[in-house]
Amino acid sequence: MKIRHDPLPIFFPFPPNLGGKFGRKINLQNPSLSFTFLRSIKLGNAGFLRFPSPSLDFSPFLSPAMLSFSTTTITSRMIITTSLLLFLFTPTLVSSECELLKYDTNLLEFPLNLEYFEAEYFLYGSMGKGLDSVEPNIAAGGPPPVGAKQANLSPVIKDIITQFAYQEIGHLRAIKKVVEGFARPLLNLSSESFATVINDAFGKPLSPPFDPYANDINYLISCYVIPYVGLTGYVGTNPKLQSPVSRKLVAGLLGVESGQDAVIRSLLYERAKEKVVPYGMSVAEFTHKISQLRNKLGNNGLKDEGLKVASDIGAEKKTQGNILAGDKDSLAYARSPREILRIVYGTGKEHVPGGFYPNGDKSKCQVTTILQQHSDTFVVLHFNLRSIIVFFAQVPAVQSSTSLLKAEVMAGHDDSGKKSNENEIPTFNVENMQSNMKVIYYSRTFMSIIGGVIAGILGFTGLMGFVIYLLVMALTSLCLTAKAGFSIHTYFDTWNRVLLDGFLGGLLSFVLFWTYPFIYAFFILYSP
Q1: Tag placement on the chain: N or C end, fewer CB within 10 Å?
Q2: Transmembrane stretches, by residue range (predicted)?
Q3: Mean pLDDT of all residues in the chain?
Q4: Exposed/middle/buried for 378, CB within 10 Å: 0-12, 13-18, 19+?
């Protein structure tokens, strides 16, 4: 770095060939202040900022100076600056926002398969008619269920199941308000279909075949077969959702589904020791066998428990009663779409339809695609150049975290702390990205400073540079949130943070650009 021996030379890295082109005179004057430093600034042809006046007064730091500069080349500078800033800070995504929204849509549409099942089963069981009679628009022209009929229920149980039925209609409507959804899939709700499940659970055919529509106990046991599976699906889905709208919906669905499961288990728990006629086995034994079958079909460790368990599995390892199923911390178990299909198909294979869904599920996106996105998509909103810093700053941590989690699963433990026999790759999403948000923010601020310096070098400095840069930052933040469907959570928590981010970016770039020459001048003047 060479220093020109003028009264007060200060070097800036301007390209020499641009010195003349961008040469201008900037007057900083404020009558109310004693401001003799930088009476005039001129950009020399060799790429230097020259300060003819050696007198120095730092009173400008107490109040911003009024700036006025020539507009000789303002048009060209404006074009270059704007183009550069837009290039640097135009918002984008690692995965496009369309993919992110599609990702949520897939996760929300999948539960419709089970909601259709529950709605039809509860409607027919309590009233002897289904969606086609009660709410045909919800069915959307899908094929009617096979083998469904009214159950022989007592008035109290019938009333409870009727309430469940109408609740499920509301669930279907709520989901379809958020996503397009699909028509009702073909459902096999015949007695034979349930009898097959019970036979598989006991490992032998029961005689006579189990009839879910025969009485209260049989129907409640059949209600134990599938609805709980949907509950665990919602638990597994909620952390993977990106949109607050999606999360709010699933939280609401999960709350009611959990209540339904609690009612069913409570009704069965009251009858836990009763014998199921004519099989001579207790209600508790039926629930235990069904839970064992679901664990086997799901093929991902212990995620299902009957009404009676060994004391080492009960709550805090102090009870054998198990009116609500939960892991070692009494938290609800979570299942993936893949596990759910293995169970409801009854085949143990997510790609082999059967059981209650003879034609398979009707989700628009294949479950394997959803799972691939779960494993491979690293979703984070960012800016073009900043993304490089964010990415390289986070990759080591993500790789390390992935290795540890994968090693834990490989060792045979799932996220509930219990044995697992499936190697599933963990998901990295907004839920576990919160801990890395500071990295994103600091990277953004760092690039904001660089952008501000570039803007200043190209001609926009001082108050005007701050204002222009603030506007650019606010505009790009607005574009970002608009691209995200105005889901502010995908970037920062609130609009205030978005605006504050733009403000701080402009302010820091302004301060940095003008701090440099003052500090440099100070050392030039007072160095020995």
Answers
A1: C
A2: 441-460, 466-486, 498-526
A3: 69
A4: middle
Tokens 């109310």 — which residue? Answer: 32
pLDDT greater than 60 at residue 277? yes
Distance, in Å, from the CA atom of 209 to the CA atom of 211, rounded to the nearest integer, reads 6
| Cα–Cα distance for residue pair 138/173, rounded to 1 Å | 7
Tokens representing 114? 């089970």
Query: How much is the pLDDT for 448?
Result: 58
How do residues 117-172 score in pLDDT, each as one tens digit? 999 999 999 999 999 999 999 999 999 999 999 999 999 999 999 999 999 999 99
Name residue 74's amino acid.
I
- Where is 82: in which H helix or E strand? helix 74-89
Rg of the chain (C-alpha set): 33
Question: What contacts 108, CB < 8 A, 6 or more positions away?
Answer: 175, 178, 179, 237, 241, 246, 249, 250
Q: How confident is the model at residue 527 (pLDDT cuts 50, 70, 90)?
A: low
pLDDT-above-90 percentage for the chain: 44
- What pLDDT does residue 316 have? 93
- Closest C-alpha among 140, 144, 146, 135 to residue 109: 140
How far is it, in rounded angstroms, from Cα 346 to Cα 199?
11
Q: Is the peptide bond before 358 cis (omega within 30 degrees of 0)?
A: no
At residue 438, does pLDDT exceed 70?
no
Q: DSSP code of 67?
A: E
* Separation of alpha carbons 83 and 86, rounded Å: 5
Distance of alpha carbon 347 from its chain centroid, rounded? 31
* Residue recorded with tokens 């069904």: 290
- Sign, CA torsion 115/116/119/121: negative
DSSP state of 488: G
CA distances from 413 to 232, 325, 397, 406, 416 (A): 18, 18, 22, 10, 8
Closest by CA position to 260, among listed 118, 138, 151: 118
pLDDT at 444 > cutoff 70: no
408, amino acid identity: E
Between CA 120 and CA 215 the distance in angstroms is: 18
Which tokens in the block code for residue 341?
């299909």
User: pLDDT at residue 433 above 50?
Assistant: no
DSSP code per residue over 135-170:
-HHHHTTPPPPBS-------HHHHHHHHHHHHHHHH
Q: Which amino acid is at 163?
A: Q
Chain centre to alpha carbon of residue 528: 59
Instruction: Evaluate if residue 92 carries a pLDDT over 80.
Output: no
Query: How many C-beta neighbours within 10 Å does residue 411 have?
Result: 9
